[in-house]
Amino acid sequence: MSDPFPSSPLFKLSPELRLQIYTHLLTFPTPIHLRQHVPGTPHTALLRTNRQIHHEAQAVLYDSNTISLSRNDFCLFTDPVLQTPVETGQVRQLRFTSFGESLACHVLVERCAVCRDDARGLLETLGAMPVLRSVTIDYSTQIANFMRFRQLAAEGGTLVGLTITCVSVGVYRVRGAGFDQVDFTFSHRPLASIWPDVATLSYSLLSEEEQETVLARLRTQDPDTPDKLWLLLWAAQHGRLPDVLGEQVAGAWVDESSDALAGMSGEQRDDAMHGFTVMLQTFLKAHTAVQCRRVLGLLRDSVGM
After folding, report:
1. Does the structure show a pLDDT above 60 at 38?
2. What's the CA angle centered on 166, arms 161 and 168, to 5 degrees?
3. What is the pLDDT of residues 256-292, one digit of tens each?
4. What is the largest CA-CA distance in the chain?
5. How do beta strands 93-96 and 163-168 pair?
6. Which of 11, 111, 192, 251 has the least C-beta neighbours within 10 A?
7. Nearest-CA neighbor of 201 among 219, 185, 186?
């Protein structure tokens, strides 16, 4: 990068105006991966203009955006050339697109501290990031990995004082071990993002045609999950849940609006929501949207709808 030219029109503006320009050009609506061109904009080239602009604009880039990373980017056995070049000291909002180990550790018997089941190395790295305020890790493609990690945390097998609590469907909050000031969650992203809308739909008074319109909109976000969850919620509303899940599994169903749930202790609520989440995750994995639409049609016919 060349040094800035004193005569550059940009540097004739006040720092406040330059900050507004950087913010306008470098704020993106979705998490960004710093090794990729940000879709729809050439503005990240601004960072390569010269040293002063890079210094000023980089701070805005990190302040205004969620950075997308993976364990691969912190893995101790991965070639740095294959890792995202990120200024960890400036990251405020961080999103992991998966909870899987790196490609390097995937083929090794002894994985590095970052990629092991207890994720101790990853947690220590995150805890050392000075301005970090938000971390979201999508575990939806590595459910078994996350469940092992959660069990280890419950047994004290990760960082001392770390707790993981299921706070809502598909969302687990991390507390303790230095993370009390960080909004740190693990999320089954398809389940956590679609469930609230489908649950709200189940309590609505919309006609079947209007319900289908809402589901069609949700399918643009995720083509499969809305129909699977809608079958379960419709069955629960009409007393047909055992027909879909079986008597034993249906017993794990949780009515989030019930007084019983509101009256539970923190540990009881965690157990109930965790069991409910596991049940839903298992159902999502075991069935297709086509199957669920077919079953829903049969159930509606059986009750004369």
Report:
1. no
2. 145
3. 767 677 788 889 999 999 999 999 999 999 999 999 9
4. 78
5. unpaired
6. 251
7. 219
Q: For 112-135, how does the pLDDT look when each residue is reduced to its tens digit (9 = 90+)? A: 999 999 999 999 999 999 999 999
Given a contact cutoff of 8 angstroms between Cβ atoms, the answer to whether 32 and 65 are in contact is: yes
Question: Using an 8 Å Cβ cutoff, are 192 and 167 in contact?
Answer: no
> Among 164, 170, 120, 117, which Cα is nearest to 278's?
170
> What's the half-sphere exposure (Cβ side, CA atoms, 13 Å) at 73?
20
Rg (CA), the chain: 23
Which amino acid, residue 123? L
Q: Measured between alpha carbons, how far is 49 from 172 in angstroms, rounded to an integer?
A: 42
What is the residue whose two structure tokens read 């056995």? 77
Token pair belonging to 67: 């950075």
CA–CA–CA angle 32, 41, 53 (5° rounding) = 80
- Among candidates 118, 172, 125, 165, which has minimal Cα distance to 145? 118
Q: Rounded distance, CA 164 to CA 137, Å?
A: 13
Q: Which of 130, 102, 103, 131 is nearest to 114 (CA)?
A: 102
Residue 229 three-state SS = helix
Q: Look up residue 111 and give its amino acid.
A: R
